[in-house]
């Protein structure tokens, strides 16, 4: 027997990607906004924000972190998280300093003379995105290379190849074409300082029963009201009843929401009911990111609360105006007719029934001296994505434990916070407050017989998103098979008769591809061109099918494409632009991105490229790793975004080495949803080479 490998190459494989020198970013469509710290600050600072300077010896401490092995408790809480925040800052600082440049030119932007363009060479395309939101220090160099004064600026925008900088009027007036500079990047320390302050204030505000709840101080006789109109979902109904009654207070109430079960809808209905029934309520609603906060605010505004003037969306001063949803512009701190924001005075902010902001911007409310006890409810949506130090920003400063009910909604089985420092991640920063409470505190653990204690936590069980076939494996692996499919039939069955399905009625395909891992010389990120080609062919058929069926172009949230590696994302995006058939279509509404970009979102159709493959077909005995793919939280998020059709493209020879992927592939095979290459069983070299997926792959 002789094994042959055939690589089919198309014109796209040979395409030369543009270099940084000939790329450009049209910033005319981006509206200019002042840097952080400008704008109108009418909210006077009352509570100081210290510097919390990183210790000089933190670099050496990284190698001898014995203190971090002791369990987290109330007594070591502040000390532990101060240390982890310093470790995180050290890593962020180390990472950003790699982009420092010596003796380089800056160019004035052609269409926006307030901006300056810096081209950085010698780094992988796309890695510059790490610079977003940070500071820059530039020193003009005279012809002899002698340094002059240092100018501080802000990174206004970053694309895949260039950095756009913004400076003071003095720098703009002094700048002359041809000047050369030393450029140093510095992290924006304000978010870390705000987290340090929250960690430092937990003892002052008496948050022991909030952060390490025992339930002993919670009301055991809370009056649970019957609610009309929401009885159709018993779990949501129960959660809202207990939130209204404040049955957990001072302990947080947790809404454990697996994918598609309506976490945000539950919070919004709870807010709606609170406003209807509690005249003296004041509600703070938060989320970790602007996009999640905007989504929450949009749903609150849709909730028919009677008077949208009671809702106020507070943005940070540095938020790009172009990102603000239209409906939020009527009730936010954007100054009408300008591109600037203002932070209103304390008295005005305290007049709103519902204040909606990000966890970080909630730090402004602490600084402004809004008193603990003003808010009767603090809601945190997508709490599983926030580091604990971020989640407690509004809690350690705005919470009076026996007056205010904290509500955390999220899913510890999905992706958690993104932490730069591996040491900090491993010792607590990588675990959200929601996940820590559910993992370590008895109140929030599921009893073998009785399940969860509904006075403190509710697990939502009805999935309103996915076809039952798509939901089955994640449900069994992560949710004890308790999730119930409740998606609308006309939506989740819309691809059950699609002509390309291997088995009608089973809208799930695993397509086996014998590709190979590739890396560019200047990038550690992996890509797989064979999988790009297969995805492209599926996409053509899907676009043709959808456009013929609807008579319109592809709508937002219709198709999403997930790839676990940044380089594969770039290759797929380039394929959409270069393919002669696809570039005729209007595909700007198709999102191509990493798993992280898809968390919290849903699409009618999801295509996924798993990328990892064996280097050569003949090297089947070589040891290999599946990298990011062995993260079960990534697997869970990726496979639960689809409503009606899920197509996964990957190399089964590699994926079957992982227990979770093995189960998924075997499921697709036994249900008739497997396509692509036959699988050679590496453990039995005498097995027929044309055999389909062996049963061992499912063991």
Describe this entry's structure for a reader:
- The chain is of the alpha/beta class and about 700 residues long.
- Helix content is about 30%, strand content about 15%.
- The chain has 22 helices and 24 strands.
- The strands form five sheets. Strands 2-8-5-6-7-4-3 form a seven-stranded antiparallel beta sheet, with no helix packed on it.
- α2 packs antiparallel against α4, α2 runs antiparallel to α13 and α17 packs across α18.
- The longest helix is centred in the last third of the chain and has 22 residues.
- The two termini are about 30 Å apart.
- The C terminus is likely disordered.
* Percent in strands: 15-25%
Give me the count of strands. Answer: 24
Class per helix and strand makeup: alpha/beta
Query: Termini distance?
Result: 28 Å
Shape call: globular
Report the major sheet.
7 strands, antiparallel
Counting H and I runs of at least 4 residues, what is the number of helices? 22
The gyration radius over C-alpha positions equals 27 Å
Give the proportion of residues in helices.
Answer: 25-40%
Indicate the mean pLDDT: 87
Strand line-up in the sheet with most strands: 2-8-5-6-7-4-3
Give the low-confidence spans.
14-37, 617-624, 680-699
């Amino acid at each position: 027997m002789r094994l042959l490998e055939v690589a089919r190459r198309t014109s796209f494989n040979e395409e030369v990607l543009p270099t940084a020198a000939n790329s450009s970013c049209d910033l005319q469509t981006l509206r200019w906004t002042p840097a952080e710290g400008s704008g109108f600050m009418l909210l006077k600072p009352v509570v100081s924000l210290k510097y919390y300077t990183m210790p000089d010896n933190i670099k050496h401490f990284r190698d001898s972190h014995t203190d971090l092995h002791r369990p987290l408790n109330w007594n070591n809480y502040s000390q532990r998280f101060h240390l982890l925040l310093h470790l995180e800052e050290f890593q962020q600082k180390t990472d950003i300093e790699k982009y420092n440049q010596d003796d380089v030119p800056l160019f004035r932007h052609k269409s926006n003379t307030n901006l300056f363009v810096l081209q950085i060479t010698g780094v992988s395309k796309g890695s510059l995105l790490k610079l977003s939101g940070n500071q820059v220090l530039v020193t003009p160099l005279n012809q002899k290379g002698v340094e002059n004064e240092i100018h501080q600026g802000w990174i206004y925008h970053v694309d895949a190849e260039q950095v756009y900088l913004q400076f003071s009027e003095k720098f703009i007036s002094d700048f002359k074409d041809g000047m050369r500079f030393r450029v140093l990047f510095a992290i924006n320390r304000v978010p870390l300082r705000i987290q340090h302050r929250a960690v430092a204030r937990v003892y002052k505000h008496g948050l022991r029963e909030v952060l390490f709840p025992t339930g002993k101080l919670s009301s055991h006789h809370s009056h649970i009201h019957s609610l009309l109109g929401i009885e159709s979902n018993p779990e949501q109904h129960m959660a809202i009843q207990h939130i209204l009654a404040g049955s957990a207070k001072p302990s947080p109430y947790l809404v454990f929401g697996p994918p598609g079960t309506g976490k945000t809808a539950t919070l919004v209905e709870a807010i709606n009911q609170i406003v209807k029934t509690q005249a003296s309520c004041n509600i703070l609603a938060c989320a970790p990111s602007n996009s999640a906060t905007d989504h929450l605010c949009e749903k609150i505004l849709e909730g028919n609360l009677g008077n949208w003037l009671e809702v106020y969306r507070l943005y940070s001063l540095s938020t790009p105006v172009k990102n603000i949803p239209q409906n939020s512009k009527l009730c936010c701190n954007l100054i009408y007719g300008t591109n600037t924001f203002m932070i209103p005075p304390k008295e005005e902010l305290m007049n709103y029934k519902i204040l909606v902001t990000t966890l970080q911007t909630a730090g402004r409310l602490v600084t402004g001296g809004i008193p603990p006890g003003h808010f009767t409810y603090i809601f945190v949506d997508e709490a599983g994505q926030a580091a604990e130090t971020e989640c407690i920003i509004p809690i350690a400063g705005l919470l009076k434990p026996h007056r205010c009910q904290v509500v955390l909604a999220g899913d510890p089985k999905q992706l958690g916070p993104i932490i730069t420092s591996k040491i900090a991640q491993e010792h607590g920063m990588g675990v959200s407050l929601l996940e820590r409470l559910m993992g370590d505190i008895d109140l929030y653990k599921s009893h073998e017989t009785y399940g969860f204690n509904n006075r403190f936590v509710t697990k939502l069980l009805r999935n309103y998103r996915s076809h039952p076939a798509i939901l089955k494996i994640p449900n069994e692996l992560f949710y004890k098979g308790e999730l119930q499919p409740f998606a609308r039939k006309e939506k989740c069955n819309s691809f059950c008769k699609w002509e390309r399905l291997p088995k009608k009625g089973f809208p799930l395909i695993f397509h086996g591809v014998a590709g190979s891992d590739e890396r560019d010389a200047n990038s550690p990120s992996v890509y797989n061109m064979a999988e790009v080609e297969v995805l492209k062919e599926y996409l053509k058929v899907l676009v043709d099918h959808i456009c013929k069926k609807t008579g319109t172009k592809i709508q937002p949230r219709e198709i999403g494409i997930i790839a676990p590696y940044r380089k594969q994302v770039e290759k797929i995006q380039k394929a959409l632009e270069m393919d002669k058939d696809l570039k005729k279509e209007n595909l700007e509404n198709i999102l191509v991105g990493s798993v992280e970009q898809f968390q919290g979102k849903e699409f009618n159709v999801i295509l996924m490229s798993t990328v990892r493959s064996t280097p050569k077909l003949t090297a089947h005995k070589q040891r290999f790793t599946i990298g990011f793919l062995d993260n079960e939280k990534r697997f869970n998020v990726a496979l639960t975004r689809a409503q009606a059709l899920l197509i996964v493209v990957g190399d089964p020879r590699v994926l079957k080495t992982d227990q979770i992927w093995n189960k998924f592939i075997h499921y697709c095979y036994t249900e008739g949803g497997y396509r692509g290459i036959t699988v050679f069983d590496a453990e039995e070299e005498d097995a027929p080479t044309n055999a389909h997926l062996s049963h061992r792959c499912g063991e």
